[in-house]
Design goal:
This protein has 372 residues and is α+β, with helices and mostly antiparallel strands. It has a domain at 4-117 and 152-212 and 221-232 and 330-364: Phosphatase 2c, domain 1, CATH 3.60.40.10. The chain has helices spanning 30-49, 56-72, 122-130, 186-189, 194-211, 214-219, 247-250, 253-259, 332-347, 362-365; strands at 3-9, 17-26, 79-88, 91-97, 101-106, 109-112, 135-138, 141-144, 154-155, 168-173, 178-184, 225-230, 274-279, 308-310, 354-360. The strands form three sheets. Strands 1, 2, 3, 4, 9, 10, 13 and 14 form an eight-stranded antiparallel β-sheet that branches. A five-stranded antiparallel β-sheet has the order 6-5-11-15-12. The protein has a two-stranded antiparallel sheet with strand order 7-8. The model is unreliable at 235-327 (pLDDT under 50).
Length: 372
């Protein structure tokens, strides 16, 4: 599992503030884990320390660039695509790098809030070429220097001159027709359309709406989000996107499967106010190089639904005490929607890790005072 996610909530009186993120690693899991640990704190630090001459979008960009530089300083060659959603009062700012995507449900209609950063996009291709790089078609996709199919990411040191860590950010005012926000990696979006995802979320959450209003769930201490991450089944042979596997080096499929035959972990709940998804350790390929930056892991893992070793992280903020709350349940419809989306992507043949987070925006539209 090379994906990760994190959720942080900072309440300031009657003002709700939360930062959600899904991170899709490639070339190893270190970049995604590092981003999950550092990015949220860096973004919030830049916002809190910024002056009136700088916008929230500029502060978010500064947080991404700081995280990228900190990771590059470690000398690790992997990379990570990102999608984040910062909800502050009645405003939401969505940012992305690479092919992680944010899709909004507006009155049941899907609305993509981000644009995938792929090497084949004309604007991205021109930007790369202006910096002296090139894009070529290789292994079924346009790739930066024939290697990486995304044109923006955190990390990827060997391509950093051309692969940007500057995100695109879109800011909106929360309105009454905004229902749900889906953040997910390309493992979902390569197999499921935007509207299909929103239809599944709307149908799964219909029962929750009948149970009560957003204030009902706040009084019941429900979290307004759910997240599921999974890896493809070990029964499906993973294929390198960059070069064929050599059985003399990596072993046969049976050898790999027997190595990873431990029972799948049970699902676990995730605390809302501060949680980091740190996937369980699995055997690593003996030969993973920077050249394999876009390749899926060569060894296979079982599907694990939110099965991970979680490391609660304390976030320093001058406006709030550092408190890590106990785990709280989520409305059942959100969890069911995440599971169904992941299952659909896998059923349709997704060969990549699939990470899906669904956020109930109605929780943030209403005032905390109204739930008392």
């Amino acid at each position: 599992m090379e994906d990760a996610y994190k959720v942080v909530c900072l309440s300031q009186g009657d003002r709700r503030k939360a930062l959600f993120g899904v991170y899709d690693g490639h070339g190893g899991k270190k970049a995604a884990e590092f981003v999950a640990e550092k990015l949220h704190a860096n973004i919030l630090e830049m916002i809190e320390n910024g002056d009136s001459n700088h916008s929230k979008e500029e502060a978010i960009t500064a947080g991404f660039l700081k995280t990228d530089q900190e990771f590059l300083d470690q000398g690790t060659g992997s990379g990570a695509c990102c999608v984040t959603a910062l909800i502050d009062g009645k405003e939401i700012a969505v940012s992305n790098l690479g092919d992680c995507r944010a899709v909004l449900s507006r009155g049941g209609v899907a609305e993509a809030l981000t644009t995938d950063h792929r090497a084949g996009c004309e604007d991205e291709k021109n930007r790369i070429e202006e910096k002296g790089g090139y894009v070529e078609f290789h292994r079924g996709a346009w790739r930066v220097h024939g290697i990486l199919s995304v044109s923006r990411s955190i990390g990827d040191a060997h391509l950093k001159n051309w692969v940007s860590a500057e995100p695109e950010t879109k800011t909106l005012e929360l309105s009454s027709d905004m229902e749900y926000l889906v953040l997910a990696s390309d493992g979902l979006w390569d197999q499921v359309t935007n509207q299909e995802a929103i239809d599944i979320v709307t149908r799964s959450c219909a029962a929750d709406r009948k149970l009560g209003s957003p204030s009902h769930f706040r009084k019941s201490h429900y979290d307004p989000y759910s997240c599921v991450c999974s890896s493809p089944s070990p029964k499906i042979k993973r294929v390198s996107l960059l070069k064929p596997q050599d059985p003399k080096i990596f072993g046969t499929e049976n050898e790999i499967s027997s190595e990873l035959s431990s029972p799948a972990a049970k699902p676990r709940r995730i605390p809302f106010l501060s949680s980091v998804r740190t996937p369980t350790k699995t055997p690593r390929s003996p030969l993973r190089t920077e050249e394999d930056a876009e390749s899926p892991p060569l060894k296979l893992r079982r599907v694990s639904v939110s099965a991970s070793r979680r490391t609660p992280t304390t976030l320093t903020s001058p406006n709030q005490e550092n408190i890590v709350p106990p785990s709280q349940p989520q409305p059942p419809g959100l969890a069911a929607a995440c599971r169904e989306l992941v299952s659909l992507a896998v059923k349709r043949g997704s060969m990549d890790d699939v990470s899906v987070m669904v956020i109930d925006l109605s929780y943030f539209r209403s005032s905390p005072a109204s739930s008392d």
